[in-house]
Design brief:
Length: about 400
């Protein structure tokens, strides 16, 4: 059986969302297909009537107490939108773009020292590629923001080699960094405030990156709809929640189609649902192959949430950067987290016949380290055999970035 390509997978996902009446989700992924198919040529497939219907549908969904007429209109629009997307999907061929993954950043022996504090950061080697999401983790004040700012060209490196092979031929010129930074979008943790009309900001950002006329309108309308901003576009900055401030910042960064997106702590101060939506969108943007390939690198303290989207990890400890592509390749043990009603003595006794390396407890949960031969099914079977044991939380963290923090805590 031939493996389903990216276009075919996305079309199938759109149809599944439509079948489950998840119109908003189906529409977002359809927009990605439309963008890949038309490459900003509105004449290739006009979806203006669909966009208008979707915006009306979204506005009706936000009503707290819709009347019967509004309910009927919303249901009618849902059917119209579903039929329209179904028809348009048939016009998009399953042929995928050539799947080439280019190096966006190549770094070697990067060193930075702050004389005022004595802090040093060292990155042995790093490659960032199109369609890849790299997640930077580490304790506070270990150099995450410093690393991102150097990659963004906002902070000079002390020593080493830092190349951007897709943006520049590497030969130094007076406009060296100007050429490179035209392909890099950087979103800091403290989001800059916007003044005036939010949509005007997006048009302006696209225009200064050479998107003018009809193309400017196409790109702005796409990013507004794709990030679900239509019902907030007439608000001012102060009226936006933290989640929508981030989403507008993402829109401003992505509307001009950079090849490298750098985000410092995007999940900070967001509720869980908003975090998941942001991560899902980032993964989708990175997966789009053509015509606007993208590499994403972000820093975070939210380990579990970002594991679902990461292709590689950077773990920073005391200024030393470790690059990891496979989390479990150097892990000689299994790791489990457990929260239950048993005391440490009761749990230790219950698991006495199972091979366990260490059993420790912090304020939140037990941490169980076992040989590779011990499987989670054995632990769960033993726990379930106890008459009064109540399991509140159990997680196999063997293949989690969190094990790096376990190891470092033990070393200290």
């Amino acid at each position: 059986m031939t493996e389903e390509n990216h276009i075919a997978k996305t079309k199938r996902a759109v149809r599944e969302y439509l079948g489950n009446n998840r119109i908003d989700q189906a529409y977002k992924y359809f927009l990605d297909l439309h963008q890949n198919f038309t490459q900003d040529d509105p004449h290739k497939m006009d979806i203006s009537s669909l966009m208008e219907a979707m915006r009306r549908y979204s506005s009706l969904k936000t009503l707290e107490k819709p009347n019967d007429k509004q309910f009927e209109e919303r249901d009618a629009l849902a059917k119209k939108i579903t039929a329209s997307i179904e028809a348009l999907l048939k016009l998009i061929p399953n042929k995928d773009a050539t799947d080439t993954i280019e190096n966006v950043v190549e770094a070697k022996a990067i060193y930075k020292k702050y004389r005022s504090t004595g802090f040093e950061l060292y990155l042995p080697a790093l490659t960032l590629k199109h369609r890849q999401i790299t997640v930077v983790v580490g304790e506070n004040a270990t150099g995450k923001s410093t690393l991102l700012r150097m990659l963004a060209g906002d902070l000079a490196i002390g020593k080493g080699k830092l190349r951007y092979p897709q943006f520049h031929n590497g030969k130094f010129t007076l406009n060296y960094w100007g050429t490179i930074k035209r392909q890099i979008a950087y979103i800091p943790q403290e989001l800059p405030k916007w003044s005036g009309n939010l949509k005007d900001h997006l048009h302006y950002e696209a225009a200064i990156h050479d998107s003018t006329g009809r193309i400017n309108d196409v790109r702005v309308n796409y990013i507004i709809d794709r990030l679900g901003l239509t019902t907030h576009i007439n608000k001012n900055w102060k009226q936006l929640s933290g989640g929508f401030k981030l989403r507008f910042s993402l829109a401003k960064a992505l509307v001009w189609r950079p090849q490298l997106l750098i985000i410092d702590e995007p999940l900070a101060h967001l509720d869980v649902n908003t975090q998941l939506r942001v991560l899902e969108d980032l993964r989708a943007f990175a997966d789009n192959r053509h015509p606007y390939p993208l590499s994403i690198i972000l820093s975070t303290q939210h380990l579990h949430e970002t594991e679902a989207i990461a292709n590689q990890w950077l773990f920073i400890k005391d200024g030393q950067v470790e690059v990891m592509n496979k989390l479990n390749e150097n892990n000689s043990y299994n790791w489990f987290e457990l929260n239950c009603n048993l005391t440490e003595h009761e749990l230790s006794t219950l698991l006495n016949n199972i091979a366990i390396t260490t059993l420790t407890r912090n304020k939140l949960a037990y941490l169980i380290k076992t040989p590779k031969s011990t499987q989670k099914q054995q632990l769960l079977k033993a726990l379930l055999s106890h008459a009064t044991a109540e399991i509140y939380y159990f997680r196999d963290t063997t293949n989690s970035i969190k094990t790096k923090f376990y190891n470092e805590a033990k070393a200290n």
